[in-house]
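Posted in: Protein Modeling Q&A

I'm a second-year student putting together a small comparison for a lab meeting, and my supervisor asked me to include a predicted structure for Thioesterase family protein. I've never done this before, so apologies if this is the wrong subforum. The sequence is pasted below exactly as I got it from our records. If anyone can share the structure token output, I'd also love a short note on what stands out.
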Amino acid sequence: MNDRETVWIARRFQGPERSGNGGYVAGRVGTALASALDGGLVPQVTLRTPPPLERDLDLVAGPEGARLLAGESLVATAVPVAADFLGDAAVDPVLPEEARATEASYRGLTKHPFPRCFVCGPANGGGLQLRPGPLGDGRTACTWTPAADLATGGDGLVDAVFLWAALDCPGGWAIDLEGRPSVLGRLTACIDARPQVGEACVVVGRYVGEDGRKTFTASTLYDADGRVLARARHTWIAVDPAMFN
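Accepted answer (user: helix_wrangler)
Welcome! Here is the predicted structure, written out as tokens:
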């Protein structure tokens, strides 16, 4: 039996000006599927069209997959894939102090194609405010201390949806987003553990390769002790930012 719920993407969770942040939306769809999967499978979410903001969307999920719909239009789909797909996705960690120092070189502070992005936009005061700076070896790094409003329930643990979001842009900034503006096309993620709000974390991203308009990256979320909390692989699609204005 499939579960059905109504999803509303508030403007706080935007990526480009008129659409939802890819990582956040993928997290809404992916976590709906993840609850039905066993340990050998993880959700792989594909964004089919820019997720619309501030309207009712239908999310239908069951063991075989999930769909996010805007009326009759398919916004995103999720399917289970073998967890081995993420076997080589872990990006080598860096110390928190190194990640913090790298943030000063974050290119999005001055030249951001989508400055109100929920994850990394400097103009989104309600966002995660990640600043993934380049490490010089194809990797990016930044720190993240999750705010109290990112928890659900009474356990103080960060909602898995926001872990998917945090895994998004550190991978994207491993691309030259100034010369090759891109949006998330596919995100495959595994949440190994959820941090407490207020817990110091580090996110690292890595460039993997490209093929035509597609670029491939990976990212990993660590706690301050270097324990893996979550891992992801991404496919990005090169776009003209003007199409989102």
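A couple of things worth pointing out for your meeting: The longest strand covers residues 201-211. The two ends are 39 Å apart (CA to CA).
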